[in-house]
Amino acid sequence: MPTTITDVVARDIRFPTSSARDGSDAMNPDPDYSAAYVVLRTDHPAGLEGHGLTFTIGRGNEVCVAAIRALAPLVRGRTLESLTGDMGAFWRMVAGDSQFRWIGPEKGVVHLATAAIVNAVWDLYAKAEGKPLWKLLVDLPVEVLVDAIDFRYITDALTPEEALDMLRRRVATRADREAEIRRDGFPAYTTSAGWLGYPDNKVRHRCREAVADGWTYVKMKVGVDAAADERRAALIREEIGPDRVLMMDANQCWDVGTAIDRVRALARFRPRWIEEPTSPDDILGHAAIARAVVPVAVATGEHVHNRVMFKQLCQANAIGVCQPDVARLGGVNEMLAVLLLAAKFGIPVCPHAGGVGLCEYEQHMSIFDYIAVSASLEGRVLEYVAHLHEHFLDPVVVRRGRYAAPQRAGFSITMRPESCAAYEFPDGDFWRAQRAGAAFTG
Amino acid sequence: MPTTITDVVARDIRFPTSSARDGSDAMNPDPDYSAAYVVLRTDHPAGLEGHGLTFTIGRGNEVCVAAIRALAPLVRGRTLESLTGDMGAFWRMVAGDSQFRWIGPEKGVVHLATAAIVNAVWDLYAKAEGKPLWKLLVDLPVEVLVDAIDFRYITDALTPEEALDMLRRRVATRADREAEIRRDGFPAYTTSAGWLGYPDNKVRHRCREAVADGWTYVKMKVGVDAAADERRAALIREEIGPDRVLMMDANQCWDVGTAIDRVRALARFRPRWIEEPTSPDDILGHAAIARAVVPVAVATGEHVHNRVMFKQLCQANAIGVCQPDVARLGGVNEMLAVLLLAAKFGIPVCPHAGGVGLCEYEQHMSIFDYIAVSASLEGRVLEYVAHLHEHFLDPVVVRRGRYAAPQRAGFSITMRPESCAAYEFPDGDFWRAQRAGAAFTG
């Protein structure tokens, strides 16, 4: 029996992370980690639902919710099988609707909403197949994976035939890598030691905790004040020692010339990479910075909005680390394109996961990338942030700096119903209590 | 007495242009030209209001309206003087709000909404000063114009000091150019002869009309079918003769390799430019096409979302014609940045005006550009589309292929109240009649 999507429910869920400066950086002093959350209701006898979200940092989340509601008629009433039978056609139907396309195209709010809906369909698909999403992807025929990709605008860098060849070359050895990941997990780094709004003593304390917990990769935020950056970099380097890996993240706060000067000044702390040194749109600027700050690698991607931009970042030798976000790109389909582009250009993929639900999402992408696309762990580490996992039914499991491979069916993105109810904006219990000046007792 | 913005009203206005295929092209077969329209109500004794809009093609217009409503608190309750006293700070406040910025940044729906609000403030400012917008800009001190620009991310191509120098060099001769434009108007081209959805005989008829009306520049749509493009190009070239200028517009429908092949095949019809040959995000792709199709110029801009992208199109020698849209960029402030970037790189600006209200807007930009920035008409022609002007209180006046300089105070974007009422979606009289299957008698 086919499964019909009977309704599409969009919800505005916001968490008050700004109160403790969790998530604060040079561009975002007071984020409230939020999700424009979508539930695909179905007539499946087991009551299966597809869940997806796109991530925002507070104000404007309602605009993404409005966009999800606008796109909803494209999937409401469709059967799951009619979508999964040709995932490429499904993606083009959502991302390519000509009238909606005008308000992107393939960028900004409408693309964020596309991600939420597309990922909800993949979640439903994986649940229906009884597999975690990464395993569903690994088990799909490589021809089906390639058909899921929209190659429009990227054929000058990657053709379907090349993509097929690349995937086929990995098939014989996939089982070994799958067994390895099930046994050892996937390597991770922590961003939770060095948020910009934390005072020095909190950063020092967090670094000691991170080292004790077995982390070997630590990321710090930089960018507002040069002297403070150097002071904090020295402090963190002192705490983590010379052998652990330090990364730096400027969150787009510099112009090209300033970025070059500031990264050169910070190079003595031996950062592995400088992340988002300038505008995410500035391909040529990233290339200029990358040439000027060797051996520090340039990383970007959390705000890079589609495969056309990633194609150019690869073509221009602008990045040494590729950081796509499956909730910023148009969902899993476009992520597949970016994983293959990065692999073709030999650039390691370290997805962006600094937001609510993003660790849950991106672990599937990194594990699939290793098993089926890149076949390498060299330079691959997946971001981890410590907060808000308690709101998910299948939260990430991280031990000694590694993600355990998800076991449950789906995309791990289903939130606890009580969390949705409490943090729905503006009328959930938490936000009502907040407005009333009362304590929220959960 | 200061003028306070007492309310911000956002409306969803849609016109049923798809019924006659007006506006149809290779990517947009059935656009309903629409406006996410904003009215800034004030306590000004003369009842002054600021009007602005962003343009969409139908579905999704409600998402832009939601974004305008989300941004509205940033200006509601402010005095006009507190905004115009530092237009740069005003722009950064709207475009740079850190939480809203996440859902762009500076692109897509939130940037379209920014354009509507920013332009409404400029409209109010011009009305308060009793000048058409182009004249207000011409009369502002050059220091004030430069202060209105956000130079973030473009200082590697253009500094505030350079911008100031460029504007100062034009001051002595501005009065001559202003007199010339008041006398002769600004040169235009027509897009209304060659919409893709028109049958050949309608195209032929429209071309004859255009020639009879004095048009010397005609643009046609291409892209879906190679044979049809060549047949229509031959037909149009036959109608307009060898000396009039023909432009071609592919509306993003090709990949890079296809674009090169198709433009080379169309070169025998001697198009002045090929517009939007591929993705608007593909800077390197445009550069590759530009190198391959000389002497046809590559043009793009209507979907180029911000100054960072235009900077790179200039730096990469990717365009020979720059087509910014003041409703796609973040309004007048960002348009100033793009006019100056293009002037520095010696690239003529021919703004995009193919949409409801865009001719009304862009005439002010082109006239200002000529008088105060470029000081040249060489290669400058402003797009004209023939439909929907009747809905504006101060519609464009075009005679013998030239725009007359607007005389009335403001940005010419105020719609007739009866048009707003009739075409408000979904409950205006037109749309009610449409749903009821009845004729709208207006």
Mean pLDDT of chain A: 96
**CATH level-two architecture of the domain at 174-417 in chain A:** Alpha-Beta Barrel
Q: Which regions of chain A are unreliable across 5 or more consecutive residues at pLDDT < 50? A: none
Q: Please report the first level of CATH classification, the CATH class of the domain at 174-417 in chain A.
A: Alpha Beta
Total count of helical runs of at least 4 residues of chain A: 18
Question: Key terms for this structure?
Answer:
nine-stranded mixed beta sheet; TIM Barrel; three-stranded antiparallel beta sheet; homodimer; 442 residues; alpha/beta
Quick structural overview:
2 copies of one chain form a homodimer. Helix content of chain A is 43%, strand content 14%.
